[in-house]
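Margin note from the TA: students keep mixing up input and output lines. Inputs are the sequences; the output is the structure of the whole complex. Example:
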Amino acid sequence: MPRLGFVLRVALGVAALLVALAMLKGRGVSGQPEAIVRARAAFAAIGFTPMGEPTVAYEGDQELAWALERARPGPRGVALAGGQGGAVLWRLSFPGGGEAEVTVGGDVWALRRPAPSDPGPDLFPSVARDRVAAALPLAVHDPGEWQTERVQSWREGGHIWQRARFAGGAGQLPRGWRRELELEMVGSTVVSWRLSVHPLSTDLGVVTGRIAELRVLRRPAMLGLALLVIGVLLAGAEATAYREPVAITRGIGYGVLVAGCALAAGQTAVAAAGQGIVLVAVIALLPTWTDLPAGLARWGPAAGVLLAATVIYGRTFILGAGGFIPVTSLVTSDTSVLRLAGESWLPALVEEPLLRGVLPAFMVPYIGWWGAALAAAPLGALLHPLPAVPLLASLALEAVLQIELALVARVSGVSGAVLARGTCEALVRRAAFPIGTLWDRVALTGVMLGILLLAWPRRRS
Amino acid sequence: MATPTLLKRCAGGVGLALPVALALALPVRSTLLPAAQSPEQATVRAENGTLIVGLLWGKGRSWTRVASGWTVVWQPAHGAWLVRAWVPDDGSEILWRLEAAPWLPGARLNAETAAVLTSAESVAVARDRVGRRDWIVGSRRLLGALPAGGDLPQPAVTLQPVVEGLLAGLLLAGAAARRLVPAVPARGWRHAVLAAGLTLLVALLELTALAGGWLQAGVRPWVAQLAFVSGAVFLLAVLVFAATRFPVSAGPPPTALLPLALAVGILAGRASPLAWLAGTAGLNLRLLVWAACAVLAGWLAGLAGDGLRELLRFVPMLRRFVVVALAVATVARGGPWLGVALAVLAAAAVGGGGGAWLAASVIWGWQFGCVWASCAWPEALWSAVAFLMLGAAVAALVVVRSSRPGTRANAMVSA
């Protein structure tokens, strides 16, 4: 029988890994190699050959991307954000001069080459308008839909410069949106262009309004967590006075881990240290409070895969039901693997001990474990929801996630909940980082740890 | 036999009423001007008296007492913009300001507002654009660009970080002290705090009228109100939980000192009223809210007082001196925390269950004094008198019943 149990556990771990791999398939920001090729081709079209390998950075306009998804729900909106919407793009900077922005869908969004020493004959204002308009096909796929709005000329560095502004209507964008193009020439050579998009205010307004609303709703949740931390401080004083056994070494180790994750997630040193210190106290005191099962954390990562599936397919369900919730993840300014690891595990390491450990420990004598777990659900649901229409759909999805985490904590303890949350966050947040095996490995860290824990021989009592 | 008892009770009644009467009669200069109109009257006056505020701007959702007037906030259900208007008590010009969500290119101004803004007698043509409405006035065009209006008077900054930090520290010290120094808990206080918490929970929806700071342009009002209610629910739940975990110790109330504490509270409230309490006078459930706040604040002041008392055990020789010195410093410094600080000091001076009673008494008087000094419209004043009578009745009941051992009223003061 023990052998059968071992086989079943390993089978569960492998099944979780397969599901996680299936979820990761195709997730991630694509188009980085293609962006370099497209940028080189665009530079070649204006007579410039960039030298060396470019440095590449990922950039995004979060509100614009979500506004496009709001206007065109589902994959069409995602494609627009990475295409003609120009909301998510790669910025390339060549070492020998020349900069370009290419959308993840492969459209060259902006381009600037160094001013050439011999830019060709100057265009006099009387002919400049037509010549600049003739350069339009270099920058856009549908030049017929564009109209020249204004052309400016000035003399600088011995040459005449031209700057033209074009208006392009909505194109493939939703109705009411507008495209603009600004193109510059020196002499008779195109040196730069930049596309921009003017969203319909109602589409943008819904998204920015929801983001502002969620920021307001986060305030009471932060107040709740602050009150919990005050409770921890008081309990710490009491434990010290009564000389209760505390797991101080474990607490310090955990606190260092939290601070490291916070730094990796891009937080300031002060914020990282603050969170680390609070979690030292929480983890040091937790063993004396909680009566949740210990040593069953191995089930956590497999549960985390299930949680990630809930989040991903929950969003699909909301979209299918006629609501709106963003499919694309939050755009991050830094796409390093360290950032992915930090952002994924920090909420798990900070919030789970407070919501699944401290809150039930305080409230169990009065409202029972399940009452405390349900009290933690609204608190946790207000911390990280995405903007949605209706707003309650997003809050409900977060509440479902919180209740599932309470179930995990009941079965496999606080450490199991931490592992489940971290695994889930890593799989969900993976979509905001570039495609690549390195990021996949980081996203699968929790699952691999789960397999290891499931295969680890149990200690005989 | 009955006559001496009656005489005693009459003397007791005079003893109770005299300090309160003196506290009301003494001339005190208040730091706030009393509000001649209620927030409701101010809202109606703004809606009727100025053309900028119409149905278009949504309904009045919040009010705050600022200087010698009320700042009232209107916001439509979609939340894309909000209007703040400062309505002075003396009937002079109403100042207003319109704020719109940052993503909005403008607002749909109504014809009257456009006329006010352009100083035109009549506005001819409206032209609706995406997210805004423009008005064409002769050869001029008024774009629906915002914000519009002028600057409003801002509430006086009442933050006193040192005092607030000290009070928070004393609360923590009191909580630790009540856990570490075992005592028989007073069940009555626990029930009173629970009842106060439930009362405020019932009144929460009405209390959103005082949460103007949560309203923002671009955030729908129901979301802002939900955030306020959620925060308040968390806070009330923690207070009720704390009342169970850090209970007041059982002990007889200092009956002789209760009227005096009430009078001190009244004087403190009259001298430095809290503007927020003037806002509560505009609520329909004001009496319940005041009573619940007094119980909760009294309990908290008792907790902080216990913390101070335990801290002063380190300097037993100087204890009385420190309490008196702190009292003098508190009175000299004044400020909106005067009543609360005096309640903490009173609780620290007496200690235990008696301290909590004394603190609650000071707070009760302070709340009355605040409303008495900062509100001048009849409904608020009558409610304040009723609140004082209620407090006096409770004090009298406690004085009378606590003199009889074994009665049910003693549940408040014993385990």
